[in-house]
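INPUT
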Amino acid sequence: GAGVSQSPSNKVTEKGKDVELRCDPISGHTALYWYRQSLGQGLEFLIYFQGNSAPDKSGLPSDRFSAERTGGSVSTLTIQRTQQEDSAVYLCASSLVPYTGELFFGEGSRLTVL
Amino acid sequence: TQLLEQSPQFLSIQEGENLTVYCNSSSVFSSLQWYRQEPGEGPVLLVTVVTGGEVKKLKRLTFQFGDARKDSSLHITAAQTGDTGLYLCAGISGYSTLTFGKGTMLLVSP
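OUTPUT
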């Protein structure tokens, strides 16, 4: 596709369930980022993938959060045993140039944990 | 941890007014980006400023990077309803991921 694609766009789940969020970056973009956006909190960095290098996981808030990127393209963010405080919009972005390049964002996945 | 503080957090103005929003930090950044985010969408890059003291203009938007590369401002002349959105600044320092501010929510009413 022409842009970053994220799915699902909306997810409502019950506390304690696991969820998977998917991101399909722009073709050819080697850098991929996950951010979390809560109301009034700006963008919180979660994890960064660059090519075949080990991901930068420094932003993951707990061990319930994990992410993988298969074949250098599609990425999945998994949240295990969801909590109400996990409710937020999860944004994925990709970049052609790592660190300094323009980030192209998807529309986000809105997660609501009841 | 490098922090970017944006002010004001929220701004509500009438169409035709001018406004300035600020992005401040105690840290030095090699470059700084401004993004605009509209409801239900992801942020979109407006500009990247690299050199201390740099001024960039994008139609009615003027971006300035502070001389010490610790702060930046965005000035909008004659705001339009289409300028409504969340304005985010993001600092870049070396080989690390972008640091985003919390944003300024701008509402322009007709």
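end of record. Chain A has a mean pLDDT of 93.
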